[in-house]
Amino acid sequence: IWNLFQITTNGTSGNQTFGITSGTSGCQYQGLVMDTRTQEFVASNMDALSKEIAQGKGETLDTFVELLQVEDKEGFKVALQENYNKLYASKDAQMADVLSNAATL
After folding, report:
1. Buried b vs exposed e over 17-42: b needs ≥16 C-beta within 10 Å?
2. What 3-state class would DSSP assign to 100?
3. What is the pLDDT of residues 46-60, one digit of tens each?
4. If we measure between CA atoms, which residue out of 36, 42, 41 comes closest to residue 21?
5. Three-class DSSP category at 81
């Protein structure tokens, strides 16, 4: 029920999207392409992305790597998988954590 409330609140109020697009959520990135579209994708797909990074394959992971415009897609997916514990340093990892940690790979 709590997750449903969060989804409904975030979806109807637009606060998450506003925070991401306006920069008030503290999202500052260098290196990889970290545009609004990428940020929103990661925020919306945290669970699936976590699972697929751990496995090293999957449609969500492929889309993530494509959005980042990485040249060596397969190599980057391997690097993400090998650094899973760094990307998701805590069980409460947020979108900004995942993106900033991915930018350091």
Report:
1. bebbbeeebebeeeebebeeebbbbb
2. helix
3. 999 999 999 999 999
4. 36
5. helix
DSSP letter assigned to residue 20:
H
Token readout for 36 is: 């609004």
User: Could you write out the DSSP letters of every residue in 59-78?
Assistant: HHHHHHHHHTT-SSHHHHHH
pLDDT at 31 over 60: no
Break the chain into its structural domains and give their ranges: 26-103
What is the C-alpha separation between 28 and 36, in angstroms, rounded?
A: 11
Q: Exposed, middle or buried, 56 (CB in 10 Å: 0-12/13-18/19+)? A: middle
Tokens of 97: 């954590």
Read off the pLDDT band of 28 (50, 70, 90). Answer: very low
CA 90, 58, 103, 22: dihedral to nearest 10 degrees?
Answer: -80
pLDDT over 70 at 12, yes or no: no
